[in-house]
Design a protein that fits this description.
Helix Hairpins, 59% helix, 8 helices, 5 strands, 5-stranded parallel beta sheet, Rossmann fold, alpha/beta, 2 domains, elongated
Length: 217
């Protein structure tokens, strides 16, 4: 989403720059007013073929050639970038993320599964078999056995990610991240965001288990 927004902003800046460059150029070189200069710039970079607003001087002709080459190049770049967004599926990806976020916002009394490894996939299967709603938080790309699973790309130790997963509306949370430290951090964050949340977290050793229990897991 951020990359798409950055690309759109950059394209808008390029178009704005070439329009401003042409307008100011005609005002300075030919001494035209703002409207005539802007109009001449637009018809030049869009190559619509209308006649000149006023007769051009030799310097004006050279400037128009430069503006035409630069303007057409920028317009082609912007169009190519737009086509790339569509062809590469970036727009579809953005829409998919919005649909995912909308579905997550509609969840209530659901479970949040932090980590979609071996244990996480087993937990998801059990919850689905029992008809319990859930969403998965996973920061690494993983192949999904079930395309209907709601999986949120993000770091489960982040408060913002937990909020996006609806932790404040959730019934329970299961943290099966790779390390005890990560699981402990998730428990601390989730308990603070939702004091009534039912939490289960994996611990590799007894020391970590006691810390997780004290943290509210």
């Amino acid at each position: 989403m951020k990359e798409l927004r950055s690309r759109l902003i950059f394209s808008s800046i390029l178009i704005g720059f070439i329009i401003a460059f042409g307008t100011v150029g005609y005002m300075v070189i030919e001494g035209w007013n703002l409207l005539d200069s802007l109009y001449m710039t637009i018809i030049t970079i869009t190559t619509v073929g209308y006649r000149e607003v006023h007769a051009l001087s030799s310097y004006g002709i050279v400037f128009t050639i430069i503006l035409l080459i630069g303007g057409v190049g920028i317009i082609l770049y912007v169009l190519a970038s737009g086509a790339r967004v569509i062809l590469e599926g970036e727009l579809q990806e953005v829409l998919g993320r919005r649909r995912l976020e909308k579905k997550i916002k509609e969840l209530k009394d659901h479970y949040i599964i932090c980590g979609y490894g071996r244990m996480g996939s087993i937990v998801c299967k059990e919850l689905k078999d029992k008809g319990i709603s859930f969403v998965v938080i996973e920061k690494n790309p993983v192949p999904l056995d079930d395309k209907d699973i709601l999986i949120l790309d993000g770091d489960a130790t982040s408060d913002e990610t937990l909020k996006r997963a609806g932790v404040e509306r959730a019934r329970g949370l299961v943290s099966v991240l790779p390390t005890d430290a990560e699981n402990l951090f998730v428990v601390l964050s989730a308990r603070e965001l939702n004091p009534d949340l039912f939490i289960v977290a994996r611990a590799s050793d007894e020391g970590a288990e006691q810390k997780i229990l004290r943290a509210g897991g």
